[in-house]
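User: Can you recover a sequence for this backbone? Please restate the input before giving your answer.

Assistant: Of course. Working from this structure:
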């Protein structure tokens, strides 16, 4: 069922075609350069960039895949959570296409799409535990089926990706900083005692990363020489000095061990033996190593997406939309965007008869 995926929830504008779980083509524009000088995503700039980029990307995608709009059966769009203005741009584009082509409109939960993304690479079995670690969320789910996600734990303050980005900002590294902290971690062994493992002293599956962020701020205040003069100095071949690298690897380890311990607890609490790791922070090498170790220790079946499928992309939206449509679920043109912090309703309509 040819599905077009539209992703505009934050600072990536992306479109993709997926058919029968296979990616036929994907185009993407990252706005990172537009926001990096501000040290974070500026919502107003982000929505304007989506508006500017969608049309040329759409033309590129059609050219690249040789597909025509009439062939599309499903228009799948990330409807939240995300930045409201950004989501609305994607929704407007999706509704216009669905109306013009007669394809089904399907609003996709961006977080569920992250967790199902590895299904584009391998078969997923359920029930499974899902650990979603991204820039805006750190959630543990019991996933009963691709349509049934039960939230078991979430962050009470900062998300893991946010903690990475704030730690990087404290060190004056470019935005988004997670990838730099990860890369620099490879240049030094971590000091396991440098930073705390937050919010483990309880039975809950919730997370709290704001204390870890404060620990980094305090450490850097005591060692001001760690702060880089400018993020612009950090070129792709930049080699950090030993102390900066040690802070990065110690920080990565603190986040990874915290996530590993909570996941361990979730396995014990639920008895589930299948794990799906997803979201931008799932690209982190220390975290991937730690979750692999946990899986070996507890004999778990671990699924981790390839690196491109960890961060925001449109293939995962197209794929999730295709699954929903195959289960007979879609939306009307009154589909609403849901900003971050609000619950996404299960407000599907039943699929109307397939167009000829
Ligand atoms: O899933 P994602 O692309 O967007 C959201 O839905 O939030 O995640 C982006 C987050 C950012 O905080 C970014 O710094 C982080 O993922 N990230 C990483 C790595 N790559 C991306 N964090 C740690 N290590 C990485 N390799
Ligand atoms: Zn995301």
């Amino acid at each position: 069922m040819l599905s077009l995926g539209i992703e505009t929830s934050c600072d990536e504008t992306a479109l993709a075609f997926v058919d029968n779980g296979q990616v036929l083509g994907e185009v993407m524009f990252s706005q990172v350069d537009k926001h990096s000088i501000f040290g974070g995503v500026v919502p107003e700039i982000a929505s304007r960039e989506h508006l500017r980029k969608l049309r040329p990307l759409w033309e590129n995608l059609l050219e690249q895949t040789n597909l025509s709009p009439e062939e599309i059966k499903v228009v799948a769009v990330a409807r939240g959570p995300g930045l409201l203005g950004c989501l609305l741009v994607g929704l407007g584009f999706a509704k216009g296409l669905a109306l013009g082509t007669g394809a089904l409109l399907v609003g996709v939960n961006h977080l569920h799409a992250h967790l199902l993304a590895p299904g584009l690479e391998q078969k997923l079995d359920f029930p499974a535990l899902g650990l979603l670690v991204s820039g805006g969320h750190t959630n543990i789910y019991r996933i009963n089926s691709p349509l049934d996600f039960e939230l078991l734990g979430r962050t009470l303050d900062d998300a893991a990706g946010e903690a990475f980005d704030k730690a990087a900002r404290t060190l004056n590294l470019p935005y988004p900083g997670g990838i730099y902290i990860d890369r620099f971690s490879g240049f030094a062994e971590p000091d396991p005692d440098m930073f705390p493992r937050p919010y483990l002293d309880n039975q809950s599956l919730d997370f709290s990363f704001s204390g870890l962020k404060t620990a980094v701020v305090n450490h850097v205040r005591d060692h001001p020489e760690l702060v880089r003069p400018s993020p612009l100095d950090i070129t792709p071949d930049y080699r950090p000095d030993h102390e900066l690298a040690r802070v990065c690897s110690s920080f990565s380890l603190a986040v990874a061990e915290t996530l590993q311990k909570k996941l361990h607890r979730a396995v014990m609490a639920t008895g589930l033996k299948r794990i799906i790791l997803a979201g931008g922070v799932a690209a982190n090498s220390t975290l991937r190593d730690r979750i692999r170790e946990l899986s070996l220790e507890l004999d778990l079946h671990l699924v981790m997406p390839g690196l491109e499928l960890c961060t925001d992309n449109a293939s995962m939206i197209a794929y999730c939309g295709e699954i929903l449509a195959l289960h007979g679920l879609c939306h009307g043109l009154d589909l609403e965007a849901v900003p971050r912090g609000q619950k996404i309703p299960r407000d599907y309509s039943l699929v109307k008869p397939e167009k000829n």
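That completes the design. Residues 166 and 315 are 28 Å apart (CA to CA).
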